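call fold(seq) -> tokens
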Amino acid sequence: MSDPSTKKMALVASTTANGQEAETLLRERYDFVPPEEAELIVALGGDGFMLYTLHRMLNRGRVCPVFGMNRGTVGFLMNEWRSDGLIERLERARPFTVAPLEMTAETVSGAIVKHHAINEVSLLRETRQTAKIEVKINDRVVLPELICDGVLVSTPAGSTAYNLSAQGPILPLSSKLMALTPISPFRPRRWSGALIQDDLKIGFRVLDAVKRPVSAVADQHEVRDVATVEVSVDRTDTLTLLFDPEHALDDRIVREQFAA
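ret:
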């Protein structure tokens, strides 16, 4: 990738007070162009805002590198906030490429809905009744009936988010794997999930979808009352995140595996 510091920059910020205050400070110090003209985007907010920014680029079909600075809570996908030295930080930034998941969901009524996910695609029960879900890998049934609150498919970049909360494994960025993780499984009792090569397709069929309704969520995008869901890695629009060398995403993922 060419030197990011020479690219035309756009600035986007969350609507929180912290995000707006940081935006004002940066606009006083640096020159920015509108997002549609940008070759690089500086994003101010938390992890949720970073996901929002990445999804907007995918939806518009115009993808460029993103350097995030944390003005939210956790900020796992963000760099530390500093108003000074931005150009120097961009010159030293390390790029990390992330391939999003593509979810194709068919609802009980027959509608087909597609969404991308940078973190995970999750299937979740809609009522107090447990979900019953058939699981396929490349059209071969591997679990005839998973009885659970839900199940999710995570990317390496998202493996420390909802996936980790559901007791799923943390995946190195270079692993070329997806984590398939059950959410509060009841049957099979001893099944704790699987690691799936990222060139395979994962399929779900909701059993008794009317009586036991299930929703599918790709990051923040929810599709209710699904009958089937297919998840695969989409390599047509890879995303690039930029990080300070001392605060890089792969190092953080390694450290998370030893966190108390």
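The mean pLDDT is 93.
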